[in-house]
Amino acid sequence: MDSIHIQGGIALQGQVRIQGSKNAALPVLAATLLTVEQSYIRNCPRIADVHAMVSLLRKLGCLVTWREEGLQVDSSQVCRGAMRGEAVKGMRSSLCLLGALLGRCGEALLEHPGGCVIGERPIDLHLWALEQMGARFSEEKGMIQGRTEGLHGARIALPMPSVGATENIILAGVMAEGDTHITGAAREPEITALCRYLQNCGAVIEGAGTDHLLVRGGNNLYGAEFTVPSDRIVAGTYLMACIGAGGCVHLEGAPADEMGAVLRTASQMGASCWPTEEGICIQASGCPKPVERLSTLPYPGFPTDLQSAALAVLAGAEGRSVVEERIFENRFRVAVELNRMGACIQQLDAHTVVVRGVRQLHGAEVAARELRGGAALVIAGLMAQGKTRVTGCQYIYRGYENICRDLRELGARIVSV
């Protein structure tokens, strides 16, 4: 499917189920390397990034089978740490295999990870942290070679709450000799999910959900069953779509307890949101309200992965908003495409834009350049008068199982072509 076609101007109504979390599923799948038994990972989203991770695991020797409710992974035959370079291209999350491979095989070979172009996102922090645990790295011809004669526990103070670095330290730490103390750890719910899976496998991890983790290494891990939690970013995307297009929707399975900052922002935008036993309800009517200043922050702050979606909604708000991106330095690329649809977004610097809401966006042909910006263009298409065609949909399919099907369930006129 090369493009998404949208007929805008229709309010959303109804209920849609939220898929399993991309950002939780990928590190959990990497963690299945750490046991020689089978694991069953339920509620894995069938998205491009998960299919790419499955391909990587198979190349490493895992037997991976899709079942009705998820993925069955047998890592008993894994005996090498090398991956083909071409398999790593385009997926930043392959980096989380680094700590797992060092822990399981004592070596890892991978190309500089790819992914969305939303900033430099250096991997130095990952390498530095793993070096504290006994790994050594070299680079040749674009490949990163990691080796260890045996990982050991360490005290690691992260200078910034990096999600990926925290995950890599945890994955290496459960296989290391001794205890690993992490201060300044990222607190995202996806890290808590990784810890829960590893605990199900017999790992001892204390402090999940806080910025201070204690990982006790040296325990033999066994296979386990685990259910991937619902995707808070997908839920936030559809919540923003409802605010932008108007209507009343129920997000079945949406993790309200993980979305405090998003729900507060939705309220500022004029929407009424309330948790239910099964998810979240959103009711929105009229034009969205502007937000004086919306800043992205590490969890539990407003997520950078929803900044583009919020930008699309604020493009149709009645007034002036300021959006500040504090996580990545190149995440306003979608503003150019939104302006092609009639938005008035002015970038002040690498981290700040001013949005002056317009009465009506209009349909246009626009191009997705990265995952979350692509989803934001779909939201803008729902808000716009007329027809919108979004190209570059391969980025969107990295994180959304079937965004067109989900939005059609809410009454949108949207198709993949």
Which helices and strands appear, and what pairs or packs with what?
Layout: E1 3-7, E2 12-17, H1 22-31, E3 38-42, H2 48-59, E4 63-66, E5 70-74, H3 85-88, H4 97-105, E6 107-111, H5 124-131, E7 136-140, E8 143-147, E9 155-157, H6 163-173, E10 179-183, H7 189-200, E11 204-206, E12 212-216, E13 225-227, H8 232-245, E14 247-252, H9 260-268, E15 272-275, E16 279-284, E17 294-295, H10 307-314, E18 320-324, H11 334-340, E19 345-349, E20 352-356, E21 365-367, H12 371-383, E22 387-391, H13 393-396, H14 403-409, E23 413-416
Parallel strand pairs: 2-14, 3-13, 9-10, 17-18, 21-22
Antiparallel strand pairs: 1-22, 1-23, 3-5, 4-5, 6-8, 7-8, 10-12, 11-12, 14-16, 15-16, 18-20, 19-20
Shape: globular
Number of β-strand runs: 23
Helical amount: 25-40%
Look at the structure and name the CATH superfamily of the largest domain.
Enolpyruvate transferase domain
Mean pLDDT equals 93
**CATH class wording of the largest domain:** Alpha Beta
What is the domain total for the residues? 2
- Straight-line N-to-C gap: 5 Å
